[in-house]
Amino acid sequence: MIIKIKLNLNLSIVLLLIHAVKPFLADYATIVVDGLDPISQTDEVKERQGGTFPNLKDFFTCSGTGTCVPMMECGENYALEAARRCYNGDKNIFCGVDSRGEPMVCCTKNRRDFETCGKTLVQGRTYKGLGAYPFVVRIGFRNTISGNMAYPCTGSILSRTTILTAAHCALAKSDGFKLSSVRVGDYDASTDPDCSEYNFCAPQANNHRISYIIVHPDYVQGEYHHDIALIVLKQPLNYSVAAQPICLRGDKINLNVGRRATVAGWGKMANQVTRSNKMELLEVPLASWDACQRVYAPTGALKSSKSLGDQLMCVGGEGRDVCQGFGGSPLIVKENGIFWQIAILSFGSDACGMRGTPSVYTGIAHFIDWIRDNTPIE
């Protein structure tokens, strides 16, 4: 099958590497949707601007703890990283070719070292469509009688088998509905597969069955502290243009009041009557904790037998917000081309979106060690 995509001229060398290795690696090509005039790639990728395919036989053997193995033995996602490094002139990761003529790379004992996170396969300065935020998934509940699915919460991809969300989502109970699956690779709930106006499509979205959940031991249902959980899938998901792992921010450096971040998910915005089928993105400012105390302390929502410490973050309050259906959604910042999740949406007010009414998020930095300690090793 030939997938037609529009690409920036500067990506010719990357695609030459990808097409020379394995046909399926085209799934990992970076798609540039704005910038220079695009070209259409069909059966062949023509060499442009003097680009040449590197001679793999010129590469040297591994040093240190790396072992020279065929590239695909080091993980599919490493193909993307190899293409990016080669395009940037870094050939040190290659160590030769095997008997089938396939590239060999220096792979460490811990193959997760090669996994990339926080990167999209679609690049564009103002692009917000399919593939712009591929880190977000929908948490699915099945009706035990009709079998119909509902998706009242959101989560984020940490790895092929682990999803990060809010504990109140993982433990949610509703008459006739039971936590069932995670829908991965979705963008527009009304279409499948999803396709972009720039002539590329994502693979069909998949509902991945849940193996088990890990809820923070200090979370208490009906309260709002330690509102964090991991969902472990029965089978690993496949990365694609619409499904990629997010990076987690383990500190609060430069996360100052007034800095803007993006919350992503499916649900109803403050100015909407009904939910949108497409993933919604909203840029919101980080707010002072005093702003949340003024709104929520009188309600008792911030009362806890446990120390709240700095585990919660106050966000928004400028007169627009995400509301119903966004529980568990990631709050994301972008730094040096990498997307970092800094928080998880926990709760908000019935007066969602009113000026001076922020929402409360669970901060990633406070729980980074718990997340790492409880994420299954793949």
Automatic annotation (TrEMBL):
- Kinase as a keyword of this entry, yes or no, is no
User: Which Gene Ontology terms describe the biological processes this protein takes part in?
Assistant: innate immune response; proteolysis
Question: Does the entry feature the keyword Amino-acid biosynthesis, yes or no?
Answer: no
Q: Give the Gene Ontology MF terms in alphabetical order.
A: serine-type endopeptidase activity
Q: Where is the Peptidase S1 domain?
A: 121-376
| Keywords attached to this entry | Disulfide bond, Glycoprotein, Immunity, Innate immunity, Secreted, Signal
This protein's GO cellular component annotations are: extracellular region
InterPro entries on file: CLIP_Serine_Protease (IPR051333), Peptidase_S1_PA (IPR009003), Peptidase_S1_PA_chymotrypsin (IPR043504), Peptidase_S1A (IPR001314), Trypsin_dom (IPR001254), TRYPSIN_HIS (IPR018114)
Predominant localisation class:
secreted
Q: Which CDD domains match?
A: Tryp_SPc
Q: Which residues form the signal peptide?
A: 1-26
Where is this chain's protein located in or outside the cell? Answer: Secreted
Family of this protein: Belongs to the peptidase S1 family. CLIP subfamily.
Descriptive protein name: CSON000672 protein
What is the taxonomic lineage of the source species? Answer: Eukaryota, Metazoa, Ecdysozoa, Arthropoda, Hexapoda
Gene name, per UniProt, is CSON000672
